[in-house]
Design a protein that fits this description.
It is built from 17 helices and 19 strands. The strands form five sheets. Strands 3-2-1-4-5 form a five-stranded parallel β-sheet, sandwiched between helices. Helix 9 links the parallel strand 9 and strand 10. 35% of the residues are buried. Bound molecules: S-adenosylmethionine (SAM). The site of S-adenosylmethionine (SAM) has 23 residues, from helix 12 and strand 19.
């Protein structure tokens, strides 16, 4: 190690920035964020200073002179002019101030880290000037690994250290408590923004410790939307909770690739419908979630698409709420959105549709049970879930109720997955074409003139073909 990583307190300290362009603005911003008083020396402040120009801790003066270095804690030279930077560097050294010259590692007393800011949690990555780009790439990876809420979590813990000190006898006991808390539902509540509930749960744990008892190990439920199939469409939070779960309840719509991302040793319970097999009834699933959580388990209930869009997610968590089981809901990309994007069919478009309606085609006795007045409004796209079995009668119903038979329509089968197929036609021809294609589902139907854009905007079919060709080479 050639340099010592330290966190320097700059609050109220004077920092000098020499330069008025973009690199200087970035340094000034950073110093202001850590509470420094920043003196910028240059003829004119550039555009990039605009967002910080009104900050009371930022002061702008003429080009730098020797006396300006006196009393500074740090100096950044970032004029983008080598001669001016070298002169400023010499002035800083003469005044005995620690100095950094942008892009001149040999003139730097310190180098800047790539910073992941989840204050009060801060991760700084340094490469000793060897490759700042590598540092930035690593930072980008950490951005995806460390949830944005970790800063709030660190603050939550920091604010309660004293309370725990009073309630425990030894540092070992405190360490175990914090390890358990950071792995458990209280931390999850903070990360999910449920700060009030987290504070109450913490107080309850502390009260138990005060009475000489052992803290309870409470279970929790994560209701997670898995999106329509492509694992890359999972949210960061979904993936993190999938890796934490002790047990997972899943159904047919969740693709194998996604299930394989769940923690390997988690128990898997299939609750969906399979051919010749009945699905577990909804109330039984809800009860299972309650029972498993009450056994202290972290239960992942993962559903295709978004749990709150034709997903019965609301029903599942009602029972949890009634039983005071902590839970959180993670939205997913719903089929209409994912499938239309991967089919190159924008759901809205300035020239075609100013609204989009999501409906389900569940019908009684083959009759479509929907609000036809809403469905047939002009200048909108209609995305129909669960409609394949009723496709023929659905399309006929559109025409019978006055829709133009030439209205473009599409079926997206297995949308976003490697085996995605898109069949396009009009509402007069779609059913026949889909039947000839022997689609197997899941499928979503899209009706509206936006479908006419598919031929031009279809990007995914080409990409799939390229990747198949590459594999076979
Ligand atoms: C019970 S609904 C669940 C919807 C889900 N909650 C969502 O937000 O996408 C099931 C229907 O979603 C649609 N669907 C789900 N995944 C799909 C996919 N990969 N491709 C096409 N349609 C899909 C189909 O219409 C399927 O019948």
């Amino acid at each position: 190690m050639q340099a010592l990583p330290i966190f320097l307190k700059l609050k109220g300290k004077r920092v000098v920035v020499v330069g008025g362009g973009t690199p200087a603005a970035r340094k000034a911003e950073m110093a202001l964020r850590s509470g420094a008083i920043v003196d910028v020396y240059c003829r004119e402040l550039g555009e990039d200073f605009r967002s910080i120009a009104d900050n009371p801790n930022l002061r702008h003066a003429r080009p730098v002179e020797a006396a300006d270095m006196d009393g500074a804690t740090l100096v950044w030279c970032a004029t983008e002019d080598d001669t001016v930077d070298r002169r400023a560097h010499a002035l800083a050294k003469a005044a005995g101030v620690t100095v950094n010259v942008a892009d001149r590692p040999e003139l730097c007393d310190f180098t800047m880290a790539s910073i992941l800011d989840r204050s009060p949690l801060v991760v700084a990555i340094g490469t000793e000037g060897a490759s700042p780009i590598l540092g930035r790439m690593l930072k980008a990876r950490l951005e995806t690994e460390i949830p944005a809420g970790y800063g709030r979590l660190a603050a939550f813990v920091g604010e309660r250290r004293e309370a725990l000190e009073h309630a425990t006898k030894s540092s070992a006991e405190r360490r175990r408590f914090w390890e358990r808390l950071l792995e458990g539902p209280i931390a999850e509540m903070v990360l999910a923004g449920q700060d009030g509930a987290a504070a109450s749960a913490f107080d309850a744990e502390i009260a138990t410790l005060d009475m000489g008892g052992k803290a309870t190990h409470q279970g929790e439920v994560y209701l997670v939307g898995a999106g329509p199939g492509d694992p890359d469409l999972l949210t960061f939070r979904a993936l993190r909770l999938m890796q934490r779960a002790d047990v997972v309840l899943y159904d047919r719509l969740v693709s194998d690739e996604i299930i394989n991302l769940v923690r390997r040793d988690a128990e898997r319970i299939f609750v969906g419908k399979q051919r010749n097999n009945h699905a577990v009834p909804q109330d039984e699933i809800s009860q299972m979630l309650v029972d498993l959580a009450k056994q202290g388990k972290r239960v992942l209930r993962i559903k295709g698409g978004d749990p709150f869009i034709f997903g019965r997610g609301g029903e599942e968590i009602e029972l949890l709420a009634e039983n005071n089981v902590p839970f959180q809901v993670v939205p997913g990309v719903t089929a209409a959105s994912g499938c239309s994007a991967y089919a190159g069919i924008p759901l809205t478009h300035r020239d075609h549709a100013q609204a989009c309606l999501f409906v389900t085609a569940h019908g009684k006795d083959g009759q479509i049970d929907t609000d036809w007045e809403a469905v047939l409004r002009p200048n909108q796209t209609v995305a129909i879930y669960m409609g394949l079995a009723l496709l023929d009668s659905l399309m006929k119903a559109f025409i019978a109720r006055g829709a133009d038979p030439h209205t473009p329509a599409a079926v997206v089968d297995n949308g976003t997955r490697a085996n995605q197929r898109v069949v396009t036609g009009t509402i007069a021809t779609l059913a026949e074409k889909a039947s000839a294609a022997a689609l197997r589902g899941p499928t979503i139907i899209i009706v509206g003139s936006v479908v006419s854009l598919h031929d031009k905007l279809d990007w995914f079919t080409g990409r799939k073909a390229a990747s198949v060709a590459q594999k076979s080479e």
